[in-house]
């Protein structure tokens, strides 16, 4: 049961990473900046994508040993 929910969580977060990557691409192509400081937003999106990818790898890495132990 734990492995199943780890994999569901990993899949959902992979979807989130894909959506954020599309947002980063759109922010880069449109030149989206913050309102006050005029700082580009695409690096923030890319950093979030990288962290979510680390989360996905961790969730899958947690689920695999549980699946291997099952008889």
What does this structure look like?
By secondary structure, the protein is mainly alpha-helical. It is built from two helices and no strands. Helix 1 runs antiparallel to helix 2. 4% of the residues are buried. The mean pLDDT is 96.
List the helices and strands and how they pair.
Elements: H1 2-30, H2 42-69
Helix pairs in contact: 1-2
Tally of DSSP β-strands = 0
Query: How much helix is in the residues?
Result: over 70%
Low-pLDDT runs: none
Overall average pLDDT: 96
Q: What's the end-to-end separation, in Å?
A: 14 Å
Structural class: mainly alpha
- Total DSSP helices: 2
Largest sheet: none
**Outline type:** rod-shaped
Helix and strand element order: HH
Q: Strand percentage, roughly?
A: under 5%
Radius of gyration: 16 Å
Quickly describe the structure:
This protein is mainly α and 71 residues long. It has helices spanning 2-30, 42-69. The radius of gyration is 16 Å and the shape is rod-shaped.
